[in-house]
Design a protein that fits this description.
Belongs to the BORCS7 family. This is BLOC-1-related complex subunit 7. It holds the Pfam family BORCS7. InterPro entries: BORCS7. By secondary structure, the protein is mainly α. It has 2 domains: about 50 residues; about 60 residues. It is built from 1 helix and no strands. The chain starts with a helix and ends with a helix.
Length: about 110
């Protein structure tokens, strides 16, 4: 009779150990799943941040191209303005010479008319 009792206790102890093992495995699995979920969320955030960075870099590149175009356009305008300024200076000199000539002519005319 004692052996049967021991057999039942041993079987009960084994079942108990198996249940504890099952619980610890479930606990580990839950922990791993939670950890994996956290990693997936972190990875998703990183990917989104990366795509946002790429988007910002693209925008910055487009802005730089637009600014470069504006700078080139301004440079071209300045070159044209320099040419116009030179022409205006020549015209001013020509007008000044004509004014001097006309005042000389007026002096000559006034001498002739006296």
């Amino acid at each position: 009779g004692a052996e049967r009792g021991r057999g039942k206790m041993a079987a009960g102890g084994a079942a108990d150990a198996q249940a504890r093992f099952g619980h610890s495995v479930k606990g580990l699995l839950t922990e791993k799943v939670t950890s994996c979920g956290t990693d997936v969320i972190a990875l998703t955030k990183q990917v989104l941040k990366g795509s946002r960075s790429a988007e910002l870099l693209g925008q910055a590149a487009r802005n730089m191209v637009m600014q470069e175009d504006a700078i080139l356009h301004s440079e071209d305008s300045l070159r044209k303005m320099a040419i116009i300024t030179t022409h205006l200076q020549y015209q001013q000199e020509a007008i000044q010479k004509n004014v001097e000539r006309s005042s000389n002519l007026q002096d000559q005319l006034s001498h002739l008319l006296k």
